[in-house]
Specification:
Chain lengths: 331, 331
């Protein structure tokens, strides 16, 4: 409808998000943290092509859907997913009422922030611990818990707030696409309630445009003070084939722009690549061992193996973090 | 939608949804299909109060979440939910390949459009038939199927397109709230894929703001032509306690404005009523046996019993369709 309204007003001077914005963008560099390399040129060329009226590849506003993975794509994910640091801190907090945890794995390792030992406890034990922290609480309580944590907790080696580890070049990309009327969505394996506590403030993406892994929830009338209770039980895993499933369920349209950094994003890329409109697939490749981390095919976190091959075969854009970005972090 | 378009174009130098728009609204009647009665006055008074800067009840734009039920709230639902007419027509279409259906219930009744017999077949048989029609198909195929149907199928007694049975006063209300920067969502027991095939065109609400009942789906790489397959299996029922659950999952924020017409909407109303901000709950009461239908406490479709009592007890706004609306249908 926005599009319809804009069309109806086409003769009128200024309507939100139209030429004035675009012109400003054209006169300055919309992606200053990107070096003047192929990836940057490809992005700008795509955006110009699909948003210029009269272009053979023009995409109507309502179909300008862009989906971004979060961990490793919009912020760092080493030495492990930041949501796991939240989990460890929460376990430590809860351990005051669970004296038995100090000798029991994986709780002991979590309380001690012993990541190496924690990772050796197996997926099932880790998963159950994550569920324990993320369930048994109301949605409102969980939101406050994450907000409090993210405002103060520091990364173990970088010693800064986790939100200071978002990538400036990607923030610029979000803003750039937004200026051209793309609707931005995060589609992440991370927890939906965990992300929504801070993503709107940090990325400017509204809660209802955040797609993630969900726990089962239930409504409780609670004697006239209704709450949503989060249960310690997985409902939907927004990873691999789950990403296009989540996109179809939450967004209802196929993306024309899709960005990720791991094999967990591959199906989302394939889905976007099947769009009838011209489309853009972008892989962030972690090549910067000095400013960030360098890892790909053999990394347990953020494995990029099949994705790297498919990107090469299909001509998707692969961002070489070390060489393509002049700045890594910042809002 | 015409209303929103006019608003966007009327002012110079028009910026969508800004103060200029608000002034335009003040100078004309934003709800012309509503008689000058208490319900209309209450709506306008609420919207003015919560959107005027400096008001004690001011609600920031990002929290102006409005949720609307669909069946019986935005369009009619008699003699049964319109999605069931789609189901019957689809069964009739499929019956060419199922000669055994013509003697087997509930298929026989569906093929014959014998609603009375159909309703006697029990919930389980009906549910299985609905699943049969809504599953076993790709999301893209299903979308096309519904689009084709809704463009041509006629209501059995009104003899007009089903989309001609949307309520003009409610369309005006959607446009009015949108002009004041409310973000509109449909939260319906209807199928999410069924609605998304036509709701954006009819209500101007984007696909990712449509919350409904979902089937399980899966991603199929399909030899390089990826598709989402809809399975004939229920995933989530967006009704009663499922409505606040769906709101929390898809929207992530509590509504400040909520509209429904049945007991299936009661939990959504209770949830909105618990908002820390001033909030508005609206029940459409079907009282017009001439222009629409008259039913409430004892109707098998759209039962409004507990909701009517709770609305009276809590002072929620109940719209008397016969007396409050000077026009019922229209876009």
């Amino acid at each position: 409808m926005l599009f319809a309204s804009l069309m109806a007003c086409k003769q009128e001077p200024s309507v939100k998000t139209e030429p004035t914005t675009v012109q400003t963008t054209e006169n300055s560099d919309p992606l200053p943290s990107w070096n003047d390399v192929a990836s940057k040129k490809a992005i700008i060329s795509f955006v110009k092509d699909v948003t210029t009226e009269g272009s053979a590849n023009f995409i109507p506003v309502e179909d300008r859907i862009a989906t971004f993975d979060n961990d490793g794509t919009l912020w760092s994910e080493q030495p492990t997913y930041f949501q796991l640091f939240f989990t460890m801190d929460r376990i430590k907090q809860l351990s005051a009422n669970h004296p038995e945890w100090k000798d029991k794995q994986p709780y002991k390792a979590a309380i001690e922030h012993d990541l190496k030992t924690l990772m050796q406890q197996g997926d099932k034990a880790l998963f159950d611990m994550v569920m324990e922290v993320h369930g048994n609480v109301t949605a409102e309580e969980f939101d406050k818990m994450v907000k409090d944590w993210i405002a103060t907790a520091k990364h173990p080696t970088k010693d800064v707030l986790f939100t200071d580890l978002t990538y400036k070049p990607m923030q610029e990309l979000l803003d750039y696409l937004k200026a051209y009327d793309f609707k931005l969505f995060i589609v992440s394996g991370g927890g939906i309630e965990f992300m929504r506590a801070w993503t709107e403030g940090v990325y400017g993406i509204p809660d209802n445009q955040i797609v993630g892994t969900t726990n089962k929830t239930e409504f409780d009338y609670n004697d006239g003070n209704p709450v949503i209770r989060i249960l310690p039980e997985l409902e939907f895993m927004d990873d691999k084939g789950g990403k296009p499933v989540g996109i179809n369920k939450f967004i209802g349209r196929k993306p024309v722009f899709s960005a990720g950094n791991s094999d967990g994003d591959l199906q989302m890329m394939q889905y976007a690549a099947s769009n009838k409109y011209k489309n853009f697939e972008l892989y962030v490749h972690h090549t910067d061992s000095v400013r960030e981390w360098a890892y790909d095919r053999n990394s347990p976190i953020g494995t990029l193996n099949k994705g790297l091959d498919e990107a090469a075969a299909k001509g998707w854009t692969v961002v070489d973090m070390k060489n393509d970005w002049n700045t890594v972090y910042g809002n």
